[in-house]
Amino acid sequence: SQQGEEDPQALSIQEGENATMNCSYKTSINNLQWYRQNSGRGLVHLILIRSNEREKHSGRLRVTLDTSKKSSSLLITASRAADTASYFCATGGLGGSNYKLTFGKGTLLTVNP
Amino acid sequence: DSGVTQTPKHLITATGQRVTLRCSPRSGDLSVYWYQQSLDQGLQFLIQYYNGEERAKGNILERFSAQQFPDLHSELNLSSLELGDSALYFCASNSGGNRNEQFFGPGTRLTVL
Q1: Cβ partners under 8 Å of residue A112, min gap 6
Q2: How far apart are alpha carbons A106 and A55 in whole angstroms?
Q3: Is A15 helix (H, G, I), strand (E, B) or coil?
Q4: CA A47 to CA A56: how far, in whole Å?
Q5: How large is the average pLDDT for residues A14-33?
Q6: Beta carbons of B101 and A43 less than 8 Å apart
Q7: Of B31, B43, B98, the CB nearest to A88
Q8: pLDDT tens across B16-39, in order?
């Protein structure tokens, strides 16, 4: 089963609006990462937040992490049509599982011009 | 361009056949990861190699196998193919472990007829 569960499954907004995607996970983590995938292409790493961090920014991206609730959010501000893609959260585990990432099923974001 | 290359881009074959997918990691990366992405299962981790040795195993079928060669390129072998094996297969690389981002290749789209 997937470690991360993104919410919503699909999101449609207008250019210029902000987009917020959420991710919940089940087990303790070392870090949480967000990736973007344009239709049928490879994943592109966006941002990594470690378990001892609460918030991180990168350009128009803002990620928060709440380890007590086992959840994270990705905010994209001032969205553009080029942001249209699927967004995945991925968790890096601890101990024996610390060599792999576990991905959620993703949020499909559509930004309408 | 992530620096990870995968060949071939597309592969169409018949049930019962065997195929080999190839991946060249980014220069200097010792870890290679293989993922399968399908509509129903999402993005599933298959297996990881680090400097030629298997490091972690995920939901990889017994009909599938992989190896990493001394020059660090990796191959994923899929045998006795079934219709359900049709999917996108991604290779990713990094310097090792899940503490850092992974760099994904463009994928191989496998269609089993």
Answers
A1: A12, A13, A14, A15, A81
A2: 21
A3: coil
A4: 8
A5: 93
A6: no
A7: B43
A8: 999 999 999 999 999 999 999 998
Contact between B3 and B103 (Cβ < 8 Å): yes
A38 CB within 8 Å of a chain B CB: no
Q: Are A12 and A19 in contact (CB under 8 A)?
A: no
Task: Sheet with B5-7: list strands edge to edge.
Answer: B5-7, B19-24, B74-78, B64-68
Cα atoms in the 13 Å half-sphere on the side-chain side of B76:
31
Report CA torsion sign: B12, B15, B17, B20.
positive
Q: What is the mean pLDDT of residues A25-45?
A: 90
pLDDT for residue A99: 67
Alpha-carbon torsion, ordered A41, A111, A58, A69, to 10 deg: -90
DSSP designation for A59: T
